Amino acid sequence: MSARSFRFVVLGGLFAAASVAAGAFGAHALKSILDPSMLAVYETAARYQLYHALGLFVVAWLVRETDDSLAVKAGWLFCIGILLFSGSLYIVALAGIKWMGALTPLGGISFISGWACVAWTAWRAGRVQ
């Protein structure tokens, strides 16, 4: 495994583990503390974190198979998206700092851009063979 693909496997594992822990914390400790709308915000953060942590495994595979720098960009876009999208939603839900919600769409754009990079990398790799 290359160092670049290894990096995304490690990050994917760490983000996935953290999202499962966050989800369990939300389901057990926060259910009685947060109002239902903020609990839903928190759950959205954990869910999207897990989706994109799993996406990092896809990226690691693409990097290994193609060694394409665009796949590497996809991985970093997923990481940025997790921090901005999920991170801002966790802060809004837990700390009530509403202005942090302004960062959420930037994280969403990072996610969308990352998936576009995944698709473009796969398309280019498929055309080469």
TrEMBL record:
The answer to whether keyword Cytoplasm applies is no
Q: Does the keyword Nucleotide-binding apply?
A: no
A single GO cellular-component term on record? plasma membrane
Query: Where does it localize?
Result: Membrane
- Which regions form coiled coils? none
Q: How does it sit in the membrane?
A: Multi-pass membrane protein
Q: Membrane-crossing residues?
A: 45-63, 75-97, 103-123
Give the chief site where it resides: membrane
Keywords associated with the record: Membrane, Transmembrane, Transmembrane helix
Q: Which family does it belong to?
A: Belongs to the UPF0382 family.
* Name this protein carries in UniProt: DUF423 domain-containing protein
Instruction: Write down the species.
Output: Nitrospira defluvii
